[in-house]
Design goal:
single chain, mainly alpha, elongated, disordered N terminus
Length: 93
């Protein structure tokens, strides 16, 4: 697959901007904003507690590292995978 670079110039910062990189970052953050409340819903906790749990037991790091794979999977399976990572890192059942 060939990646096409779309560059714009940010006059205020005096540097070029890679639009695809910004789009990927936006997609990643959008997925993370979606999956944390989804994780909370599936495991019957509020979003703040889910975030703290994921942060404490490595779930957030896993999401950031593997978001591209997780976002194309079924949300139920993605949450299960994230939960299993947390269990391996000392999370509670």
């Amino acid at each position: 697959m060939t990646r096409t670079f779309l560059l714009c110039y940010d006059v205020s910062m005096n540097k070029p901007i890679d639009i695809l990189e910004d789009r990927e970052q936006s997609n990643r953050l959008g997925f993370i904003a979606y999956i944390i409340p989804e994780f909370a819903r599936q495991f019957k906790m509020n979003s703040a507690d889910a975030y703290q749990y994921l942060k404490k037991y490595g779930g957030i790091d896993f999401i950031f590292e593997h978001w591209w794979t997780l976002h194309v999977d079924n949300p139920i399976l993605s949450c299960r995978d994230i939960y299993e990572v947390c269990l391996e890192n000392g999370g509670m059942r």
